[in-house]
Specification:
With about 180 residues, this protein is mainly beta. The chain is about 5% helix and about 55% strand. It is globular.
Amino acid sequence: MSSVNTIQDKNIAYEVYESGDRLLGTAEVTLPSLGPKTSTLSGAGIGGEIEMPTPGQLGSMELELNWRTLNKKNAKLMAMKAHDLELRSATETYDAATGILGVGAVKINVRGLPKKGDLGSLKPADHTDTKTTLEIVYFKMTIEGERMIEIDKLNYIHYVDGVDYLADVRKALGL
């Protein structure tokens, strides 16, 4: 029985996998921003300007992996090929009605191409703060086993909460 007063609190822990292998050493992952491309709509009958989003057209999506040290895993992510990553997160919930702490599951799948490798710095007794940035061409977010967002830039898929906003575009293009 689920409560109507469940509070989503925080990320408990996360894991990153590349093609099924666990990537150890990540300190933090910055997820992509999903920003639609827009054009300015103005003219007769419009009181000003509107930045109108174009369905299914998104700007650059970047995923950044922050590492504690230089290692073979982050060096391999700079290979000029697509990298498939799966990020799994355990999130904490609090049911205000029952007082019970719970655990939720979030899974994010991405396919990315190397965009930038910041090797960081060498200091005694400190982290290098190495960063790997991938340009994301595919993104899928599943929460509690339910597909919530799926963006596939190369296959005209822009799915959010049960609606594929590019289905009519694929149809119009004969795909």
